C-alpha cells in the first residue's frame, strides 16, 4: 500500500453516469466517472507516474503539460444491494501526490500486506469493481504500470523510462523514446519506438507474440528466446553466442529458431535488448 500522502477516493464525489438493476435475479451495475488534476509537489524534479490496477485498462498519453490529468471510469457489479455496498467500502482507489511522483493504487480485500494480489473472483466476493484509467502525463515522465484482469495497457508519446506488466491482457506502446521492461503473461506485446532505446531493455510474453519496431540505425546487443515460436528480424546481425540457431529467409526477412537465448550484435553494438516469447513469435523490425 502506498504509505505517503494517500487520499482515498471515498471522500471525493464521483459523477454518477449510469445505474441499473437488471432484474430480480440479475446483477446490479453502477458506473461512475472520476476526474482529477494531480500535481507533482516539486515541479522541477524528475517525474514518475505509477498505476497499480487489478481489474480494468490503463491508457496513458504523453503531452506538453506539468501535471497529470486523470479520468477514471469505475464500474461496480454486484449480486445484491448489500454486496454493492461492500464493493464501495472495500475496493478503493488510493492517490498520492509526492515530490516527484503521482501514484494510483487500487486497494481491496484481495491485496496482501506486501502489495501482491490474491484475487478470488466473483463467487467469493459477490462483486466486481473495474477501474479503467485514462491519463495525460508530462511527456518526459517515467511509467510504472500494472494490470491483472479485464483490460489492455496502452501508452503513446511518452519519452521516459518504463516498467510495465499485464497479466491477462496485452501491452501496446507507440511513439516511445525511453527504455525499460515490458511483459504480458497472457497477451501480446507491441512497441513502436520513436527513438531507439539507449539503455538495457526487456520485452517478453508467455502466451503472446512480441513485436518491437525500432528506427533505422539501431545499435545494440540482443538476446532472443522462444520455445514454441519463431524469431523474425529486418536487421542484419552478428552472432555472439557459440551456438547459432537454425536460420532461413522468408518473405525477405531472416527467421531464426531456437529454444535457448541467442546472442547477437546489431550494428556497432550497444545496450542489451532481451526478447523472450515462450509460446509466441518474436518480431524485431525496422520502422518504415
> Distance between the terminal alpha carbons, to the nearest Å?
43 Å
Gross geometry: globular
The helix-and-strand class reads mainly beta
Oligomer: single chain
Counted up, domains total 2
Order of helices and strands: EEEEEEHEEHEEEEEEEEEEEEEEEEE
DSSP summary: helix tally:
2
Largest sheet: 13 strands, mixed
Tell how many strands the DSSP assignment holds: 25
What value does the Rg take, in angstroms? 21 Å
Beta-strand residue percentage? over 45%
Low-confidence stretches: 1-25
The percent range for helix content is under 10%
Mean pLDDT: 89
Sheet with the most strands: spatial strand order:
2-3-6-9-5-11-13-15-17-25-19-22-21
Topology of this structure?
Elements: E1 6-8, E2 15-21, E3 28-38, E4 48-52, E5 58-63, E6 68-78, H1 81-90, E7 92-97, E8 101-107, H2 122-125, E9 127-138, E10 142-147, E11 153-156, E12 162-166, E13 171-176, E14 180-184, E15 189-193, E16 201-205, E17 210-214, E18 220-226, E19 231-233, E20 237-239, E21 246-250, E22 253-257, E23 262-266, E24 272-277, E25 282-286
General description of the model:
This protein has 288 residues and is mostly beta strands. It folds into two domains: 1-160, no CATH class; 161-288, no CATH class. Helix content is 5%, strand content 51%. The chain contains two helices and 25 strands. The protein has helices at 81-90, 122-125, and strands at 6-8, 15-21, 28-38, 48-52, 58-63, 68-78, 92-97, 101-107, 127-138, 142-147, 153-156, 162-166, 171-176, 180-184, 189-193, 201-205, 210-214, 220-226, 231-233, 237-239, 246-250, 253-257, 262-266, 272-277, 282-286. It has a 13-stranded mixed sheet with strand order 2-3-6-9-5-11-13-15-17-25-19-22-21. A twelve-stranded mixed sheet has the order 1-7-8-4-10-12-14-16-24-18-23-20. A hairpin with a 2-residue loop joins β21 and β22. 36% of the residues are buried. Mean pLDDT is 89; it is low at 1-25.
Amino acid at each position: 500500500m502506498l504509505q505517503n500522502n494517500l487520499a482515498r477516493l471515498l471522500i471525493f464525489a464521483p459523477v454518477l453516469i449510469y445505474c441499473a438493476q437488471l432484474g430480480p435475479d440479475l446483477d446490479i451495475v453502477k458506473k461512475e466517472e472520476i476526474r482529477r488534476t494531480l500535481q507533482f509537489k516539486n515541479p522541477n524534479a524528475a517525474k514518475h507516474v505509477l498505476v497499480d490496477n487489478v481489474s480494468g485498462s490503463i491508457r496513458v498519453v504523453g503531452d506538453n503539460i506539468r501535471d497529470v490529468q486523470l479520468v477514471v471510469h469505475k464500474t461496480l457489479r454486484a449480486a445484491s444491494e448489500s454486496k454493492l455496498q461492500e464493493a464501495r467500502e472495500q475496493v478503493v482507489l488510493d492517490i498520492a501526490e509526492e515530490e516527484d511522483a503521482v501514484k494510483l493504487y487500487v486497494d481491496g480485500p484481495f491485496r496482501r500486506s506486501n502489495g501482491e494480489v490474491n484475487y478470488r473472483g466473483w463467487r467469493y466476493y459477490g462483486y466486481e469493481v473495474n477501474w479503467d484509467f485514462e491519463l495525460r502525463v508530462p511527456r518526459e515522465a517515467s511509467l510504472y504500470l500494472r494490470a491483472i484482469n479485464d483490460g489492455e495497457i496502452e501508452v503513446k508519446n511518452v519519452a521516459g523510462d518504463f516498467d510495465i506488466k499485464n497479466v491477462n491482457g496485452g501491452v501496446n506502446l507507440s511513439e516511445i523514446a525511453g527504455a525499460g521492461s515490458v511483459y504480458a503473461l497472457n497477451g501480446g506485446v507491441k512497441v513502436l519506438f520513436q527513438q531507439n532505446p539507449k539503455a538495457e531493455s526487456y520485452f517478453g510474453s508467455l502466451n503472446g507474440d512480441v513485436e518491437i519496431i525500432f528506427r533505422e540505425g539501431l545499435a545494440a546487443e540482443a538476446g532472443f528466446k522462444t520455445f514454441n515460436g519463431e524469431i523474425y528480424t529486418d536487421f542484419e546481425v552478428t552472432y555472439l553466442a557459440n551456438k547459432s540457431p537454425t536460420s532461413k529467409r522468408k518473405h525477405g526477412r531472416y527467421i531464426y529458431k531456437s529454444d535457448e537465448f541467442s546472442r547477437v550484435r546489431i550494428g556497432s553494438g550497444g545496450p542489451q535488448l532481451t526478447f523472450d516469447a515462450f509460446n509466441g513469435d518474436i518480431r524485431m523490425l525496422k520502422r518504415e
